[in-house]
Amino acid sequence: MREAQKLDVRALHLEVAQNNRRAKTLYESVGFKARDRFQLMTKTLNVGCGRNNGSGNTA
Question: Which domain holds residue 18?
Answer without folding.
Answer: 1-59
